[in-house]
Amino acid sequence: MGAVADAWTWLTTGANWQGESGVTARLLEHLWFSGVCLLASCLIALPLALWLGHIGRGGALAVNLSNVGRAVPTLAVLVLLTLTPLGRHGDLPTIIALVLFAVPPLLTNAYVGMREVDRSVVEAARGMGMSGGQVFRRVELPLAYPLVLIGLRSATVQVIATATLAAMAGGGGLGRIITAGFNTSDTGQVVAGALVVGALALAAEGVLVLVGRLCDPMRATRLTRSPGSSKSAGPADPAAAARAMT
Length: 246
Prior knowledge:
single chain; mainly alpha; MetI-like fold; 11 helices; elongated; transmembrane helix; ABC_transp_perm/SBD; ABC transporter permease; MetI-like; MetI-like_sf
């Protein structure tokens, strides 16, 4: 309990939140790091996974290759990139390492979500005259949305937690608070930094859950099919399900 009490004292000291090395500045740096890495990861993984899931070819190989990256420690990748010429370009090694770390959950969940869409619904949509693009936008993507969102939430939490490694390569972020605590043998500061990172990760996941529910393209349909609803059975006919999404 002593370390927790010391962490609380450190967090409630106003001076620790001010200045270039304060919590506020480090938090903004951490958010910038995480946001850039997540945006880059989404731009790489989601279009590829959704397209491969739509055509039904090559996805398993892509998923397996991306999952190989999970076996390589992010810190090892960061150190190796820092030792290359990329190390002279500021935060670039950290961003690349975090992007490589975030791609697998995004790619895997998006691809699996597309492939788990009921094929009978897809065929019914094609039978109604929908083009491939219409089937993708109106049928496959809305039904794959929950798994895509789970992948995004997983990647977000992982990136926010792992971005603390940026401090080991001379970068900013909340990791600098933790490393500074280690350097001065200040256990309270180390625990405080870890608590801020954990709180940020939980807050980000909570926001994504809320936004995900509000933006769900199948929100109305899912509500009418929820347990206890008089319409919980939903349309038993694949064609009726396809019509409900148009």
